[in-house]
Design brief:
Layout (H helix, E strand, L loop, with lengths): L4 E2 L5 E2 L142
Antiparallel strand pairs: 1-2
């Protein structure tokens, strides 16, 4: 059976498989894709457009998401341990309870992201923008916060 993925407008997205560890999806247009529970361990998603995609409970361990657009993406409970998210756009993404242990988020844009209860231990956040991000209950033990941008929003 060939799995099919549809976006929110009902259009079929052409993706080889939902469970595709090591897949090369670099530059892929996966906007609005439902990838809940997907196995994308060590996948190449460099520069992919995952805007508003659903990756809840997805396994992205060790995946390369450098420069990917993940704005508005649902990554609740996703496993991103050891993943490379250098320069990724995670604006307004929901990463609550996600595992980001040892991930590289250098220069990532996490503006308005929900990182509540996320495991960010050992994470590289050098130069990341966390303005307006919710870090309630997040584990930041041994995270590198050098040059993190966190402008206080006025009310």
């Amino acid at each position: 059976m060939d799995p099919k993925i549809y976006n929110k407008t009902g259009r079929l997205l052409h993706v080889a498989a939902i469970n595709a560890p090591g897949a090369d999806l670099s530059g892929a247009n996966l906007r609005y894709a439902d990838l809940t529970d997907a196995d994308l361990m060590y996948a190449n998603l460099t520069g992919a457009d995952l805007t508003d995609a659903d990756l809840m409970y997805a396994d992205l361990t060790g995946s390369d998401l450098m420069g990917a657009n993940l704005s508005g993406t649902d990554l609740r409970h996703a496993d991103l341990s050891g993943a490379s998210l250098i320069g990724a756009d995670l604006t307004d993404a929901d990463l609550s309870a996600a595992n980001l242990y040892g991930a590289n988020l250098s220069d990532a844009d996490l503006t308005g992201a929900n990182l509540s209860a996320a495991d960010l231990s050992g994470t590289d956040l050098i130069g990341a923008n966390i303005t307006g991000a919710d870090l309630t209950g997040a584990n930041l033990r041994y995270a590198d916060l050098t040059d993190v941008k966190a402008t206080r929003e006025s009310k």
